[in-house]
Amino acid sequence: MRAAAGAPQALALCAALLCAAMAVWLSARQGQELRRLRTLLAGGGSLTAAGPAPWAKAEEALGRLRQVLGERRELMCLPVGCAVSLLGRSLLPLLGSLMAVPLVRRWLAARRLRRERESREAAVIELCGTVAGDLRAGRQPGEVLAGVRLPELGSAWPAVSAAARYGGEVPAALRRAAGQPGAEGLNAMAACWQVAVEGGAGLAAGLERIGAALSAERDQREELAAQLAGTRSTAVMLALLPVLALLMGSALGADPLRVLLHTPAGLGCLALGGLLEGAGVVWTRRIVQVAGAPEGRRGG
To answer: Can you give the pTM of this predicted structure?
Structure first.
């Protein structure tokens, strides 16, 4: 009775969220067509008075909505939960999608940080090779470092460039920039720079060795990630098996959503399956993290 009473409100909310998701999807694919049609209407004689303003407002609204969902991609869990709520006529999938939003946000943030770290690592390796090559060509260290642009380090790199250009403390600036994840190789570059300036050692040779060491370390991590790719794909496949089972049951006419969402036995199975699914995901993630950790940290 409670599920039947709450069904109209769930249907209305789900329909609104699905309409918003469809509007964003259509605007992403038809943005160019809208702009072309607005241009045609603007040059169509009598249609110019009524054409541009409505199209401009509609495109602006869709652009804002697309920007919000583009920055907050975890909100796409809500349309999925709404679709399952519509099919199962229950509020539980919608509540589950609301609970999944912070988890998806955390996963997306971790993936973004990992990509930024890899980008900084690649930039530091390229920096060592570029500076070493210019030094081999006869240029001065400060002149070379001042002319390098490294947008991957954000606001930390202009201080290094300024120190190299105006005779400041380049090693100290490099160590400050090395505080970002993925830029730890700048600490070795700072030490090499300080030794070369104070003792007259070959800076180019030192930077080449640093770049080679960083490249070897990155290649080792990539090889390890490739070896663990099979484990990750197996975990994803096992996590998607319940969804496949639901689809197969629906195709056979068993109506598994009604059993899971509207019967005590189904609710118990759903709760137990969710706990086992979460435990399996956490366990697999832990195995992958331990396997990918450095040798010195595996015992901890």
So the answer is: 0.68
